[in-house]
Amino acid sequence: MSSGNNGDNDVIRAAGCVLWRRSPYDDGLEVCLVHRPKYDDWSHPKGKLKRREDALAGALREVEEETGFRCAPGARLPTAHYVANGRPKQVEYWAAEATDGTFRPNREVDRIAWLSPTAARHRLTQPRDKTLVDALLSALHLT
C-alpha cells in the first residue's frame, strides 16, 4: 500500500503470482513460468497494477491474462524491489494454485512451461525470481 509520501508516485506498482499445480502425471509440484518475447525471458506471471487496483486483484488478473488460468491465491510471498527503466519497481507476489483454464499465446506471452521447482529455478532469467520458488516451497511446507 502507498504510504502517501511524494516519493511513492515514482514507484511502479506491480503484482503477480508464483502459479503452481499438482502434475497430472505424477502428482509432483509444478510451477508455471511465462516466456515474454518482448524481453526473451522466463518469469513468473506478473504485471503493472491499474490505478487504485488492489494488489491481489491485480495479481490474479495478470495471471489469467498471461497464462489463461484462474487460480486460488494462497500465502503472500516476498515483495521484489528493483529498478526498471530508471524507476523503482515494487512487485507484490502470492502463491497461487491453478484451478482451471487453458493457455493461448498472446501479445505479451508466447508460451508457458510447467516445470518442477528445480527446473523452474534453472529456467528463470532473473535471480530475484529464483528465490520466489524457494518461498513457494516454504509456504507450502515442502522444504
UniProtKB/TrEMBL annotation:
Q: Does the keyword Hydrolase apply?
A: yes
Recorded superkingdom:
Bacteria
One Pfam family here: NUDIX
Show the SUPFAM superfamilies listed in the entry.
Answer: Nudix (SSF55811)
**Ranges of residues in domain Nudix hydrolase:** 10-138
Q: Which UniProt keywords apply?
A: Hydrolase
The GO terms this record gives for MF are: bis(5'-nucleosyl)-tetraphosphatase (asymmetrical) activity
What does the entry give for GO biological process? AMP biosynthetic process; ATP biosynthetic process
According to UniProt, the name of this protein is NUDIX hydrolase
